[in-house]
Amino acid sequence: MGSSTIQKPLIDSTHQVLVKLADTATKADTTTHGAVEHMLKYINKTTGVDANTTFTIIVTFIIFGFGLLATWIVSFIGAANARKSYKKSVNLLLFNFAQECKKNHDLMTKSLENVSIVQKHAVGFQLKVIAHLYFLEKIDYSVFLKHYVRCCNKSLKTKAVTEVFQIIGSIKEMEEGALKNMENFTDLLNKRQEDYLTSLFEIERFFERNFLTLKVVDYAVKQECITIYNNWRTLRHDTFIANSFNNLIVPLKVALDKFPNEKNLDSLYIMVDNCYRAYPDLQHVDRLIKSNFQPLAQLSYHAYRKTKVILKIFGYKKYKA
Questions:
Q1: Does the reported pTM lie above 0.70?
Q2: Of 50, 203, 211, 240, which is most buried by a Cβ count within 10 Å?
Q3: Membrane-spanning residues where (predicted)?
Q4: Angle at Cα 309 formed by Cα 303 and Cα 312, nearest 5°?
């Protein structure tokens, strides 16, 4: 009996709460429905369009709005992905460009430190044409700005983009000039090398075929030239130009200059003189080649350093460490 008396007020209280919640929901629903109905009646009164047509128009506008929103979202995501892909590709090009500049600097520096071309068999000057430069110079400046300068540090990024194009232009111009000069120097080098080596070959052939039977006024010149040539034969396995010049050409010229009246040695003198004149030209070409590439080597190193900094500004991950 006592238990029933305690439970009844509890049940009544719960029932009252549920009734109030139901009434609130019903009122809210009625209010919303009333607002919609009021809006439809207003549109009908204002435009003369019936409620069904008005409702259809409203629904159409809502669907159209969602369609526009969905299209904008898809377009926004697509543009973002395109920018991301563009920046990734360009950053990779810049990274590879920087690495090639560093390699070129190292190659040219090594070549600049090499001994003179008269002390080795070939020029051996190394320069690698930067293939990435061709693709980078095709990039449009305004498109570059559009993809890289959007938010955060706009002034710094704009300066970095401008610096990229200055670096590309400088490297391209100096590389083209150096290669053109190298072509001219190589032509000159080949001509003077050919003059020297042809005369050297004729000198050796002269001694091997004609010199022993050659008649001279003063036998002393003949004996001195034979001694010089025999000494050279023991050293000729070193085919560097400097070796033949120092051990054959110079001694022969000194000996022949002491006997200017030996007419039968005129042909030998001409050949020796050809080598004697070609040698300093070869040394001069060597200096020209080195002076031609030294500025490009320095510029390549500066381009490498600057591009590293620019990539950090662009947020390229490989240069964050």
A1: no
A2: 203
A3: 55-79
A4: 140
For the stretch 69-90, pLDDT in tens is 767 676 667 666 666 777 788 8
Domain that holds residue 313: 86-321
Q: Note whether 35 and 111 are same-domain residues.
A: no
**Number of domains observed in the structure of the chain:** 2
Tell me the two tokens of residue 25.
């929901």
Has residue 173 been placed in a domain?
Answer: yes
Identify whether residues 249 and 114 lie together within a single domain: yes
Mean pLDDT of 37-58: 65
Task: Supply the Cα-derived Rg of the chain in whole angstroms.
Answer: 45
The tokens for 83 are: 């920018």
Burial of 5 (0-12, 13-18, 19+ CB in 10 A): exposed
Do 170 and 275 have their domain in common? Answer: yes
